[in-house]
Amino acid sequence: MPRWFERFLDRALKVRPGEASKVGLMALYAANAIGAIVVGRTVRDALFLSYHRKDDLPVMYILNSVAVALLSWGYSRIADGARRDRLNSWVAAGWAVVMAAFFFFVQASPSGSATALYIAVEAMGALVVIQFWTFAQDVFNAREAKRLFGLIGAGGQAANVVYG
């Protein structure tokens, strides 16, 4: 990396030499995690509202809350005894399989799978965000976190624009 670029990163963005690759990868991770949530919510909302009334949404919010609470509780039981990087990889692969399965379920029964997809996307979104920030806490120390988490979080905000 050219020296002038390192000075720019240090002065403008508070990224010290040697941190740029970690920050870039974590911002890319944030962008893809948030992007998956944005796309998932768009698809689930369109599908759900195609087959259900908007008056059904309050029930979905309750079901989402229950599903997220149960999933978070179960994840916390597993997460304490596993390496976080491996667990994140396995969970991401698991969600990829679940979402691919929904592709086929929606083809077969769109109205029946709309409710399940609605809940699954919200559960996935909550878990992905928890995993991301927990992993970021492991990658950066407290001083680095104070300087860099805003910049890393900007990757997620950029995803809202790009994926949205």
> Cα-atom Rg, whole angstroms?
19 Å
State the distance separating the first and last CA atoms.
Answer: 32 Å
Mean pLDDT across all residues, rounded? 90
Multimer state: single chain
- Stretches where pLDDT falls below 50 for ≥5 residues? none
Question: What's the overall geometry?
Answer: elongated
Proportion of residues in helical segments = over 70%
| Helix-strand sequence | HHHHHH
| Strand segment tally | 0
How does the helix and strand content classify structurally?
mainly alpha
Give the count of helical stretches: 6
Tell me about the largest β-sheet: none
* Fraction in beta strands: under 5%
Would you mind describing this structure in some detail?
The protein is 87% helix and 0% strand. It has 164 residues and is mainly α. The mean pLDDT is 90.
